[in-house]
Amino acid sequence: MIKLYWSPRSRSFSALWLMEETGLPYERVLTDITTGAQKAPEYLKINPMGKVPSLVDGDAALGEAAAICAYVADRYPETKLAPPPTDPRRARYLQWLFFGPGCIEPGLIQIFTKLEVPTSTAAWGSATQVFDVLDAALAKGPWILGEEFTAADIVIGSGLNFAVRMFKMVPPRPSFDAYIARCVARPAFQRAEKIAAG
After folding, report:
1. What predicted TM-score, i.e. pTM, was given to this entire model?
2. Does an H or E element contain 181, and which?
3. Alpha carbon distances (Å) from 166 to 9, 162, 171, 172, 189
4. What value does the mean pLDDT of the chain take?
5. pLDDT per residue over 100-150, tens digit each?
6. How far apart (Å, rounded) are the C-alpha atoms in residues 119 and 24?
7. Where is the GST N-terminal domain (predicted)?
8. In terms of C-beta density within 10 A (0-12 exposed, 13-18 middle, 19 or more buried), how is residue 131 classed?
9. Cβ contact 176:9 at 8 Å
10. How far lies 87's CA from each of 18, 56, 78, 92, 98, in Å?
11. Same topology for domains 2-80+190-197 and 89-186, yes or no?
12. Could you give phi then psi for residue 56, rounded to 5 degrees?
């Protein structure tokens, strides 16, 4: 059985939401990061970065929320959370799947720390550019690839929920508000939120 190592109020929410969307049986393994459980030698064998979430599926073990989303969507194609490799939409799917950790998270760090980085050297460009690009993409809706909900929406939706709804680090925009509302309305999102709240 798939084991998801997670902790409340962390990046684990993406993986928790993912697993609830799949409908696959899985075991949640609470990893208390307030006590340093993620630094235990047994856990570091699963994720040497000592972070949550992590996932173990038979002999496969990995960390990083977006990587977990990619792995599960590909390993279990019956979940229909990713376009097949031969589908031209796969290219945009992968781009948006990694836009979360590659652009949204650095953009949020830039906002939070008020870090001034030249856009020519910042891999994410600038926080303003990140959220302008996302705004334009989401205005087409209802999901990041159009009509089809995918694992990329879990990554993007989790990031926007965190940035706009929960911590109010990014000002709301009509496209963000509508997209977050669609995410929050999903039964799997609601189940994950309930689990995360304890």
Report:
1. 0.94
2. helix 174-185
3. 11, 5, 11, 11, 14
4. 94
5. 999 999 989 888 888 888 777 777 888 899 999 999 999 998 999 999 999
6. 42
7. 1-80
8. buried
9. no
10. 21, 28, 16, 10, 18
11. no
12. -125, 125
Q: Which one is the CATH code of 2-80+190-197: 3.40.640.10, 3.40.50.10710, 3.20.20.220, 3.40.30.10?
A: 3.40.30.10
Q: Which two tokens stand for residue 184?
A: 């929050």
pLDDT at 86 over 90: yes
Class of domain 89-186: mainly alpha
Whether omega before 48 lies within 30 degrees of 0, making that bond cis, reads no
- What are the structural domain ranges in the chain? 2-80+190-197, 89-186
CB-CB contact of 161 with 184 (8 Å):
yes
Tokens of 48: 């040497």
The confidence score (pLDDT) of residue 123 equals 78
Give 146-149's long-range contacts (Cβ < 8 A, gap of 24+).
148/83, 148/89, 149/81, 149/186
Tell which wins on pLDDT, 167 or 3.
3
Distance CA 58, CA 162 (A): 31
